Amino acid sequence: MGNHLHLMVGGQAVIEGVMMRGPKLTATAVRDPNGQIQVETKDVHSISDRYPILKKPLLRGSVSLVESLVIGIRSLSYSAKMAGEEDEQLTDREMAGTIVFALVLASILFIAIPTGAARLFHFITEDPFFLNLMEGFLRLAIFLGYIWGISRMKDIRRVFQYHGAEHKTIFCYEAGLPLTVENARIQPKHHPRCGTSFLFVVIVVSILCSSIVFSYVNWQNLWVRVAMHLLLLIPVVG
Fold it and tell me: Is 187 within 8 Å of 167 (Cβ atoms)?
């Protein structure tokens, strides 16, 4: 089977399983407490299909990120139920609340805290570019520390193992090999389209972008700077 016949496939690890996403369908496979594999498939309906302007550069990245977040949380909810960790799946309202809470928490952890902590460097220099650069490196350090910290948790380490297995499976599929354990096992566990790697790229690009922007727009109010960082995420992610 040649590579030209393959669809572009992505995915993510969930609790005791993986979610795979293609252009039209998502499939979530989870190992239940009895050792059986439970599979749920859903159609993919992108808002950009209804509003083609959202497929334009600088817009499509943000749309894709939000839609991936929604699909990912829905798949996590399904996997938690199938793995016996929850009695029922999240409702649409609960899922919206979860997304809002996650965004607020991420804003505090990766934007507000580094922005506030960067003021500690004022005793070294008042150069805006240097201070903004330090703020960016603090954000990167918090992100790496966060990934390292959660990787020490047994349940999260298990999810990371499924994450690596998902990458190996996609590599196997893209190589045109039969999808067997033996063929998947020999594949690399780091995939260039990995979402976690994408977040790392977003942080690095945002460091460069904000360092330049805030060198010219030197607002010192913490919440104004946080709001500016959030607005800058749109072109950075795009």
Answer: yes
Helix (H, G, I), strand (E, B) or coil at 19: strand
pLDDT band at 2 (very low <50, low <70, confident <90, very high): very low
pLDDT at 4: 44
User: How many other CB atoms are found less than 10 A from the CB of residue 233?
Assistant: 19
Query: What pairs with residue 31 in β-bridges?
Result: 37
The dihedral over CA atoms of 187, 202, 90, 13, expressed in degrees to the nearest 10, equals 10
* CA torsion angle 147 169 20 49 (round to 10): 100
- pTM for the whole structure: 0.71
Q: What are 41's strand-pairing partners?
A: 27
Q: What is 38-66 written as a DSSP string?
A: EEEEEE---HHHH-GGGGSTTTHHHHHHH
Report the b/e string of 53-87 with b at 16+ CB within 10 A.
Answer: eeeeeebbbbbbbebebebbbbbbbbbbbbbeeee
- Three-state DSSP state, 26: strand
